[in-house]
Task: structure prediction
Amino acid sequence: MTTPGLPVTPGTPAGGTPRTGGPDDGTATAGALLRNWRERRGLSQLELALRADSSARHISFVETGRSRPSRAMVLKLAEHLDMPVRERNALLLAAGYAPHYPETPLDDPAMAELRQGVEQLVAAHEPFPAVVVDGAYNVVAANRGIMLVLDEVPEELLRPPLNAMRLTLHPGGLAKKIRNLPQWRAHLLHQMDRQLSLVRSPALKELYDEVAAYPLPPEAGDEEVEEVGGRAPFALPLRVAHDGHLLSFVSTISTFNTPMDVTVSELALETLLPADPETTKYLRQQLGS
Result:
């Protein structure tokens, strides 16, 4: 990385702890997992069968364990249920098949181009903050914009491995600088809770329990984002006090399209875009355009 941000960090697979099922325990049968995901998607057996070119009778037999689906059918059903890549592997394992999607560590030589691309991606967003995280919000890469926002965070919180949720919500971290912390904290906890409803991740559950228990720092703001000029904002802004300035951002999150690797499927790029001209001007003054 040619800019002084954070390079891609090799380490454990996204999520930290291998997961063997959805939110169910690892003993669930293929039929139980299939039924769980079908009900989550609000589909009847007939609707799923029509999408997968099967029959409601066959879907019923698979869910009750009376029939073992082929490997191809398992993958087809998982695709039509829009299951996360890791959970598709779990469904295959429960059905007695080998996983279809590899889980390649980021420090593997095969990931060299991905690591380079991620570094270029976050650098291209400068001077605006950008960070890439894995499935448990461990920081994989970050640019100078992120480091600028975090430059008043105590050094002990910046020691690797960095975790975006911990950095944001820890009472000694960025939380004490967030002017609308109650709103932003509720948003982040809801985001994690929604993610936990889709995957069984001990690492993510442990992180959620930790950050949800953090007390609100006395320095934090409790302002509510209100209508401006008679209009509500188009997205909840993140308002951060920095060196006597009030910076306002809106967050966007991007993921890889049609990932074929578990690690890649759980990477997410979050960009903080300026929500007002003053923030844009300040960032460009500090980091250049």
The chain is about 40% helix and 10% strand. Residues 22 and 199 are 5 Å apart (CA to CA).
